[in-house]
Specification:
The chain contains 18 helices and 14 strands. By secondary structure, it is an alpha/beta fold. It comes from Aurantiacibacter sediminis.
């Protein structure tokens, strides 16, 4: 049985889009007959044992901590994770190291892979220098930005094969000089076995939140600046002009939460905007069930043009209507007028009109829902798409040079 060791920034039991994608990958690979484990670096912040089983998956932790000035600290993190990979490999003997961004994980896997003589796959879920700009913790072109980008280039260069989650990231790597044949795509996906019939609307919860009986526009996720939620709040007065009984449901939290709440409180339609705060993951379907349209008004930036989000796919799997800004990452997931609607980014008026038009087109809702669910089933089902990894693994293990390296390990 082929053994794959996934090298990770953090994992379950922490909850994030990153850990849910990891869970979906490992679960699908187990179902395919692969023997999989994960190992996390020093940035996994949850307390727990050195070896932890969560949801039937095994994760190993890297001990210790890294100190020092910026640059040296990260290099020490890479070294600690590489040493932990080598130590685990002496016991468990993986056939392939499959590292997932950020670049610190990729570089640790490359270092360990060379020492062990086994191939390395490096998977990029986002360029972390662009994510830092989107999170307002860095600026494009800064020293930190350029250093992070250089680490990414080093990880890509050292890996035997690279995976990205979308065409936007692949195209950017090709523009940097990476050979297209070295790059595969594993799109964001949904584990459809987790989605049966959509949950029924909980009228008691709707009443408790003051949503009334009119249409509900929803956002469920993290409140980052690049999500454009300020534009969504700014769109509400214009939407209310056409649909006075419409409501906005905001589920989640994050760095922009306080600013967004203040903006909503100052809105002339403040009573139509509801914030729930963060809710347990097990409760999320109850909140999806309250919504008619899930809205993703991401601002236009390198991050949103290059990276495809997961949330619109989850909404389609939940049989929800989807409206999203017309940025590159959304265009890879949503076909305007077929599986959802797209509106101009950074434009509250256009957002409001798109939402109002969709509310007016109630007779078309079932078609949107059915086409959206079919799109996820045909193109973004983890249990189907995980076969793409198998092709990459077999090509690496089938190469005579890599086979000798694997046997030597």
């Amino acid at each position: 049985m082929t053994r794959i060791l996934h090298v990770l920034d953090h994992s379950l039991p922490l909850h994030s889009g990153y850990t849910f994608r990891t869970r979906a990958i490992l679960t699908a690979q187990k179902a395919m007959g692969l023997d999989v484990r994960g190992i996390t670096g020093l940035r996994h912040s949850a307390d727990g044992p050195r070896v932890e089983e969560v949801d039937g998956l095994t994760f190993h932790r890297t001990p210790g901590n890294a100190e020092g000035p910026a640059g040296l600290k990260e290099w020490r993190e890479i070294g600690a994770l590489a040493d932990a990979i080598v130590a685990l490999a002496e016991e468990w003997r993986p056939d392939i190291l499959h590292a997932h961004s950020p670049a610190l994980d990729g570089l640790a896997a490359v270092r360990a892979g060379k020492k062990l003589g086994i191939p390395v796959v490096y998977e990029i879920r986002a360029f972390w220098e662009d994510a830092a700009v989107g999170n307002l913790t860095s600026t494009e072109g800064s020293l930190k930005y350029r250093l992070t980008r250089q680490l990414e280039n080093m990880a890509v260069s050292g890996a035997d094969h690279v995976m990205t989650i979308c065409e936007g990231l692949k195209s950017d790597l090709v523009s940097r000089g990476v050979l297209p044949d070295k790059i595969g795509i594993m799109p964001n996906g949904v584990d459809l076995t987790m989605f049966g019939e959509p949950a029924p609307r909980d009228d008691a919860l709707a009443d408790a939140l003051g949503l009334g009986s009119g249409p509900v526009i929803g956002f469920i996720g993290s409140f980052y600046d690049y999500e454009g939620l300020d534009d969504l709040i700014a769109a509400m007065p214009m939407l209310i002009e056409r649909h006075p009984d419409a409501r906005l449901l905001m589920v989640g939290g994050g760095p922009m939460a306080d600013e967004l709440k203040a903006q909503a409180e100052a809105s002339p339609v403040a009573d139509a905007i509801c914030f729930t705060g963060r809710v347990p993951h097990s409760e999320v379907e109850r909140y999806y069930a309250l919504t008619d349209i899930m809205t993703y008004p991401r601002k236009k930036s390198r991050l949103t043009d290059l990276v495809t989000p997961l949330k619109p796919l989850e909404a389609m799997a939940q049989m929800k209507l989807v409206a999203a800004s017309d940025v590159g990452g959304h265009r890879e997931l949503i076909t305007h007028g077929e599986t959802g609607v797209l509106f101009a980014p950074d434009d509250p008026a256009n957002c409001a009109n798109a939402l109002a038009d969709l509310l007016d087109a109630r007779g078309e809702w079932d078609g949107y829902r059915e086409r959206g669910r079919a799109h996820v089933r045909d193109n973004h089902d983890w249990h189907r798409n995980a076969q793409r990894y198998q092709v990459v693994y077999q090509s690496l293990l089938g190469d005579p040079g890599n086979s000798q390296r694997s046997n030597a390990a």
